[in-house]
Sequence to fold (656 residues):
Amino acid sequence: MKMIRDVIRDTIDEEMARDDSVIMLGEDIVGGMGSPGGPEAIGGIWGTSGGLWAKYGSDRVIDTPISESAIIGAAAGASLTGKRAIAEIMFADFIGVCMDQIWNQVAKFRYMFGGKTKCPIVIRMPYGAGYNAAPQHSQSIHAMVTAMPGLKVVMPSTAADTKGLLAQAIRDDDPVIFLEHKALYGVKGEVPDGDYLIPFGHARQVTQGDDVTILATGMMVGFAEKAAAQLAQDGIGCDLLDLRTTSPLDEEAILDSVERTGRLLIVDESPPRCSFATDLSALVAQKAFSSLRAPIEMITGPHSPVPFARELETAYLPSPEKIVAAAVKAMSYRRG
Amino acid sequence: MQLSREALLQAYRQMKTIRMFEDRLHDEIALGEIAGFTHLYAGQEACAVGVCEHLDAQDFIISTHRGHGHCIAKGCDVVDMMKEIYGSSEGLCKGKSGSMHIADVTRGMLGANGIVGAGAPIAVGAGITAKGTGNVSIAFSGDGACNQGTTFEAMNMAVVLKLPVIFVFENNHYSEHTGESYAVGAESMTVRAAAFGMKAIKANGIDFFSVYEGMREVIDYCKAGNGPASIELDTERFFGHFEGDPQRYRGKGELDRLREERDCLKVFRTKVTEAKLLEGADLDRLDDEVTALIDRAVAESKTATRPTADHVLEDVYISY
Fold:
């Protein structure tokens, strides 16, 4: 059993050992540079890079100033010229500071340059609510990056998936946004030894059932799993899919499931409009309309920033109870 | 001047190619032959060529929206560039980039760039790759991009990481339609770059020899492992910010005066012929050679294959 934060560090370590072209950049990923405490005083504020600098040195584990645009730009330039750069943005919320480099540069190089080049960059971003970290350090930004052609977007929920998907991301020739839920860093799980890759675009079947399809990613998978366990006691069978990657998206698994259950719950911790939840709703409405036996239920945050106070943040987030209530509502729907 | 006859001819050939490429585009755009936004480099040729004549394919450059000159100077195929600007699927980027994003990474040309100030951070990354190899990474920026925070971040990071990056500031005195004296708060780009802790020098951007010598100084400095450097080049642009720009911000007679007194090609011709390094006839022969090349580039571009709708989804990893 290993904590997800350790899985991230160990996977990066394995990939750096395997391939000399892999480098890492970010603020405080070494930590303590230029300070009395000295290098490695921190090892990344999330504990996801401890020991890597000592092992690989300053040319491969590059501690940067607080300069998000330059971090992504530097990772992009290195990746265009033969490296495989892993850039860490300390909080996903900081994406606004470096959006041009992600949206106009990294995502477009391959297409804009006529398919003659690649930019194998991984941008790791801790995201999500649950830490009472207030509006600028709690957001889930996957919808915005999923909407951008040229980016692959990964949202692991387990320790094993974190390893398989991160190794895949580092070896992938396209830019990958790798979203790590902050509240999951301390979660433990079994992790396969040795080379372990999970191809993108394949959902994980968490629970099987014939009554309701539930789609979730990241921390929402655990919430949905709790809800599914409770619903099972009430005789409602949930087909829970952990989508793992929002782009590419496993449309086939989603549509197969909805065609079987006829009911769809989407659990997403970001606000509801122009979101991943609305995107999934549209997909099912377009491609599995005749299978639906009840309106699609979206269990999301409200259209507000993520608030600070414990009571407020809890109210903001989806919960197992809210998921159960939505499932019951879907089950009780009768066509007028 | 320690350049060989061959090196002098090559420098002139490159500068002349850029000039004729841009002059011809100006004419073709006026005829309505070319779609989109085009920003011409004419007037600044001594900058691109004075920098890139020091480089080989393993050195990196990143350019700006005014990128044709940098592309040509770094060795991009001129005919394929023209086809790209015409939007042909035979173009250097298969008709996906147009004028503003031409790239050829195999030649170390990491792209023209439509976002002012976006290039410098990317050059820092190429500098990470170049570090320890004896190669350098060049960020071309103008007096507009020098005011972007991204450029500041890049300069600081290059100093902190001691990277072989050279920030080339081509000061053509206009960021789009706004004068440099208004928009650049510091006394100069050089003063600003020096404040970041790097070697920072100036050169005369309309004199190839001044640019070339200045670049030698900063390249030697970088290759000695001292970290980044900066060079500010005083230059002029002969056309508008974009093609179609009425240029009402110019002074009366300004463009005529610049073309008469501050034309880097004239400066070069006068210098090399007066010093008897080259004959006028040598240069005339190159003029003919370049004219033929540009004629061929335009003729081939006009009949080159057009992309079709199914090319839209080529080179995307997935579509929905």
